[in-house]
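seq/struct pair 1
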Amino acid sequence: MAKTPTVVIADDHPIFLLGLKSVLEKMTDEFDLIGVAENGSQAWDLIKNKKPDIALLDIEMPDMSGLDICEKVRSENLFTKVIALTVHKDEDIFNQALEAGVHGYILKENSINDLSEGVKTVLSGNFFFSASVSSFLLNRSARNSSADSEIKGRRLTKTEKYVMRMIADGHTSNEIAKKMRISVKTINNHRANICKKLNLKGTNSLLVYAMKNKENFV
């Protein structure tokens, strides 16, 4: 028989904590609630001693915040996965939570609806975020993609960056060759080297990349 996943919860707001406990106790066929804490220190003691599969932690608590606990869980290589509970629909706090190592971010206003799905999703090895903060994840992904493009752009030589600027402006290899007073073959060699450095494949991939990242080739 498979072991029932274990859960601990922590929140310094008694009414919310009582409600959360009540919801989880109705899910005994899905989870085993093995501990309840009213502050960060109690939560950390529960996690260390009982080693739950999931810790549902309020981000802001006395003694230790939920994110402080999450960082300790990660630094001590505990297998407990932390799901942050918060009232904050704030992108900076969301990013801080991800950097601390949370596996889920549930807004308290959505907690009753998101709780069961969130815990199951995290237990399955995935991440879970309340729908109303999903745009923060897209923004984060876009920033990381932009930063990655900038790093890749730094790998190019000064000449290769100039070629990329010309490509982004819509110039053909013949036009670039005339402007640089070199052969078309040399331009095509530059294009091939750029594609190799940036791992670009496909007929129009170089043009698309150049146009999307033109600011990195100044």
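seq/struct pair 2
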Amino acid sequence: MAGIRRSLKPWNSVCPYCRDGQPARGALCPERCKRAKTMKFGCSSASTRRRRRPRGDRNVTMLMLAAGLGQVDYLRTLIDGGANRTRLTTRNKMSALDVAAETGHWRSAQILLGGGPAPENLRIEISLPMQSVALVRDGVPIYHARCSTGRAGYSTKRGEFVITNKERKHRSTIYHVEMPYFMRLSCLDFGMHAGYVPNHPASHGCIRLPEDTARKFFSEIPVGTLVTVQ
């Protein structure tokens, strides 16, 4: 490791892997590159606060860069080599997992969480137009239920997420309401939980589930499971 660090250029140099200030396709900036030092990630840690989007941060590690660029093979190599997964950036206190979540690299998030089922084996699919949720195992939907997503002005985020943590008894610090069987999605300020499920979008952005569905998912679906919202 010492040899690697000696070979890296000073902070004020241009990364040899970059082209005109942008990472070359398929390349990863070294830890001490000027761009790496001020990499612009904005995800806060896994809390109930809404994400801030600062202009820059410091103390960004190679593990965070690999997570943010979706370099899963390099990410595994760094972890196998003993990279610190819990190290935080200086200003926004972001971990590598936060960076993976902010940049939408769910495979990186799975690795940093210690694993998760392959999507072809197990995943959850949320349909916003249908206001429905499906549990898919081995490519076959095996369970369906109604759900209620974000109403006008509070649209539920679309995309691919992973369950990053679960809380049996959770209380929102934003809306000050109980959210039983809470399953946070990709360290963000929303997730799935038990709640009132009318036949239309009614939440502040979370995915409300019938209590029996929330209880089932909470007990049977592991952290790291992919959740698609479309």
